[in-house]
Predict the 3D structure of the following.
Amino acid sequence: MYLKAVTFNKKLIITICVVAVMLLVFPHIQFGLSDYVLSVLTQALLFIYLANSWNILSGFTGMFSLGHASFFGIGAYACAIMTVQVALPGLGDVQRYMLGIAAGIVLSMILAFVVGWIATKLKGLFFAMTTLAMAEVLRTFSLQAKFTNGNLGIIIPPSLSVGPMASYYIILAMCGLAFLFTWHLKNSRTGRMLISIRENENLAASLGVNVTKWIYVSVFISALLATLGGAYYPLYLSHIEPTATFDYSITMQMMIVCIAGGKGSVLGPVLGGVAILLNEAIRATLTKFSGGATSYASIAGLLYGIVLLLIILFMPDGLISLRSSIRKFRDDRRKKQKEALAKANAKIS
Amino acid sequence: MPLQIILQVLISAICTGGLYGLFASGFTFQRGALKIVDVSYGAWLMVAMYAMYVLKTMLGMNYFVALVIIMVAYYFIGYGMRRFILTKCASNMVQLVATMACTFILQNLAEFIFKQTPRSTGMVEKVVVLGGIPVSLTRLGMFVLAIGVLVGFQLFLNRTWTGKSIRAIVQQSEIASIMGVNAEKTMNAAYGASYMLAAIAGSMLVVFIPVMPYSGSYYQTLSFIICIAAGKSYMRGALYIGILIGMIEAILQFFVARYSMPIIFVAFVFALVLRPDGLFSSKKMAST
């Protein structure tokens, strides 16, 4: 039986194209909005990208990871350490940065191997907690070690910073590629293997799916994407610190974006980017009204949490389920109208 | 290092560990018996600590009166959490995310009200010297109280009608319903009872550990570690592991303060991978 995993109709493709074009021209036109909006969009795109990587491991394969920040942090720290802390004579900053990306990929592949090994042994909550503990190990270690400069963090040399416009375009391109990749993945044989593991691991194994191999593959893909996102981070921010890279809140942001949009779907993480925009909008509005009072940040966090809770409780499949539920509502109403009409006609005749 | 200092550190570590065991056994009960993943448990513990601070230090109430008030309030909070949030979630993973959102709300609320300043009840600990070792009577009393509460909870589960019906539902929900047990109501009540353990532990912890808005996440992680190390439905094990963790924490902080948390986490990961069903279990496979 041919299982069509993703259905993209013409209307949806046109919508995606329109949004893509709007995002492409946005920094040049800006629609009368300030530079602040550009930075918020960059942040939202970064988390959409990371949510995409989380989605491959947790949405498709069903391995609920709470430690994705560790891959992200390894990418960011490898680049920062190679650029600043290690003495490499005769190499420019950009070349060192490239070396850093390579080192980050190698390191996170080693970590991914460990995670894959754990994933084949532990399931569900146990896997989630182990990955969380792993991220905590890395965070506390980077807070204490010498070469990561402790909680002061590492300052990236200005020669690496590319400016807000370029960093926006880089992350947009990364996001677009990641989107196309997951789209392709979900429709491919590999994607169906991963989804079969999520749905029923024993059944998949009995039908000849090499479960161990495909779990490793999904961990590797997901870790690679997250590491590249981390490698982008020094370009975007000029300061790397443990609380902004290895922290639990980073993983939480990825999860929120992915779950608010729709876990296990290709469009989900993209829609979930709205969550980041919403958070920033609440923050900005509160700052405006409170006149810059210091307590606004926690109120913003409070409101964000409440909205999140409501989304999880009333839309457990994320914003992506909105489309089908609206369609269902419309169909129900039409059906009712037709029935009422038929009844009225019957009465008349 | 003189022996007296080691003994002093160990005694106070055992007392703190008893409290860790107390709140972790509440979490173990939720996870094992009620099949619920609630990561807002640590945040609620933090709220209980703040509640004790408000009632005792700001309003000047008697400690035990305040304790009873917090316990009653927590029974209803636990009841409401299960009734309105946790049972609405489709799977354990959705529960995880929903309670994460709750954690987020509680932390930000606490930060908004109390700011980042550490708060403590400012009670003076009574100290007696036993054979040259100064022992805090307050801590010892707390430890004894914690053990008493846990024994009482076990008795409640084993001897009372409600406790027996909770266990009946855990074993066979349908049969228990046929026998006339209202499954939903009883489980909500059981959940409320597990929150009462958090209330007691929080009220006692705040006496000697200052509370901050984000200190809940540390206790949450600890209770996870303890719950998994003890095996998910073994509450007495949670107490033992709690005491063990308290001692390990004190010893590590004495010798390698810089790396104490990473070492605990690495040990946890190894324990989980090698003995997924708890240190006391003979099973080799994890069951979710």
Summary: Chain B has a mean pLDDT of 85. Residues 166 and 190 of chain B are 7 Å apart (CA to CA).
